[in-house]
Design brief:
The complex is a heterodimer of chains A (249) and B (155). Chain A has 5 helices and 11 strands. Chain A has 249 residues and is α+β, with helices and mostly antiparallel strands. Chain A has one domain (16-243). In chain A, helix 1 packs across helix 3 (106-123). The longest helix of chain A is centred in the last third of the chain and has 23 residues, at 213-235. Chain A is globular, with a radius of gyration of 19 Å. Chain B is built from 3 helices and 6 strands; from the N terminus they run E-H-H-E-E-E-E-E-H. Classes of the chains: A alpha+beta (249), B alpha+beta (155). Chain A binds chain B through residues 21-22, 30-32, 34-35, 67-73, 75, 91-92, 100, 127-131, 137, 139, 163, 165, 169, 171, 176, 178, 182, 184-188, 196, 199, 201, 207-209, 211, and chain B through 2-8, 10-16, 18-19, 33-34, 58-60, 62-64, 71-76, 78-80, 104, 124, 142.
Chain lengths: 249, 155
């Protein structure tokens, strides 16, 4: 069944308008250091490119409460803002994030990831990587489900005209992907303020056995990017893809 | 692996009110994505107590801990243990016990059909094991996991 989502041949290098509202390239880890000194260790390495530090709301929650709630364990507490990207840091996570609705393309991201991994290695707080992940969040105005190969059904017929939120997991070898599609999303920002529409949220990751962050981190991120991208285009019906003005290399 | 509570909403978007998840119920945990098979195996073979201990280790021992500054649980050790338990068959009536060591590794101990101890320690970079009945003790790489299952837990 999953083969129906896989498409062969070259993938577009660009579609217009670009639906990506955010892309996150994340490494989860365990550290022998306490959270209190992690920001200083990282900032000392990245301050040339990322000067502005922003505390995220979760930082206001007392550490003892954050550590008791597994749902909060891997969330970032701080952002370091640079000219092109944002770096996020938490007690067990570091991530490179694109600026909202400002996707610069994979080559620029790959280069920045290589730089960030060098800096994180020099900072010395990652004892062992637990997970390497790539997540792309795409927004479409209107209902995306009629344009996708996946959807919800009632008695064999597409569930139409109602709000749907669908989450499932696909495996591609050692890569796991979590796909969430909803036609009831609200996104903020942008030139026109908050918008209601559909979101296609794809998160791909490898687990501890394949998360050699400083040995082959950029290669893993590339592999995950390619998998997430192929799944994204594999989900779109061909006639809808044509409406998105695909450009090929 | 191991159950998580529902994660907070992604920052880039939120669901409209009708699609948001209702308040979670105490005692109901959502299995982490893609870990259903492992969760089932851990619960079936280690029992509620063993499953609960792993859940506890994973969620509360991920930073230096205790008076002796024990090392945080190694994700690779946990991954190895989960894969071992998933593939293993333990003697009827024998339920392994699981321990977190000061070095952040995990130990699994149980008795074979004759009542003799078997111990396996899962580390970030490999596996140590001990078979009391034969006195055999050795260390192997994590790529030998399948062999170790066959040797120790394939009754």
């Amino acid at each position: 069944m999953i083969s129906q989502l896989q498409i062969s041949g070259p993938l577009p290098v660009r579609i217009t308008p670009c639906p990506i509202i955010e892309a996150i390239f994340e490494a989860r880890f365990v550290s022998a250091e306490t959270w209190a000194i992690l920001p200083g260790l990282l900032y000392g390495q990245i301050r040339d490119r990322y000067r502005e530090q922003v505390n995220l709301p979760l930082l206001q929650v007392p550490e003892v409460m954050r550590m008791q709630d597994p749902a909060l364990t891997h969330l970032p507490l701080l952002q370091f803002k640079g000219e092109k990207f944002i770096i996020q840091l938490g007690p067990r996570v570091v991530s490179l994030v694109t600026k909202p609705r400002d996707y610069l393309g994979w080559p620029a991201i790959r280069e920045e990831l290589g730089w960030l991994l060098e800096k994180a290695k020099a900072a010395g707080f990652v004892r062992e990587a637990e997970r390497i992940g790539v997540r792309y969040i795409d927004f479409f105005s209107g209902d995306i489900f009629p344009h996708l190969k996946i959807g919800a059904q009632i008695n064999g017929l597409p569930l139409a005209g109602t709000q749907v939120d669908l989450t499932t997991v696909f495996r591609f070898g050692h890569i796991s992907t979590r796909l969430q599609v909803t036609n009831g999303a609200i996104v903020g920002g942008g030139a026109h303020g908050p918008q209601v529409g559909s979101v296609l949220d794809v998160d791909g990751w490898v687990g501890p056995a394949d998360a050699d962050l400083f040995g082959q981190g950029v290669g893993r991120f590339t592999e995950l990017h390619d998998t997430v991208k192929r799944l994204f285009f594999g989900l779109l019906k061909p006639d809808y893809l044509q409406q998105l003005n695909p450009e090929y290399a | 692996m191991i159950a998580y509570l529902p994660p907070p909403s992604a920052s880039a978007y939120s669901l409209i009110e009708e699609l948001r998840e209702p308040m979670g119920l105490p005692g109901i945990h959502r299995v982490a994505m893609d870990d259903l098979e492992i969760e089932q195996a851990l619960l079936a073979k280690l029992g509620a107590r063993g499953w609960g201990r792993i859940h506890h280790f994973r969620n509360h021992y991920n930073q230096p801990w205790g008076e002796r500054r024990g090392e945080p649980l190694s994700p690779r050790a946990l991954d190895l243990l989960a894969r071992f338990v998933t593939a293993a068959t333990f003697p009827t009536g024998s339920q392994p016990s699981v321990f977190l060591t000061d070095h952040g590794t995990l130990e699994l101990c149980w008795e074979d059909a004759t009542g003799a101890a078997r111990q396996v320690e899962f580390k970030a970079d490999g596996i140590d094991y001990f078979i009391e009945a034969t006195g055999e003790e050795a260390s192997v790489g994590s790529d030998r996991l399948g062999d170790i299952v066959g040797k120790l837990a394939c009754t």
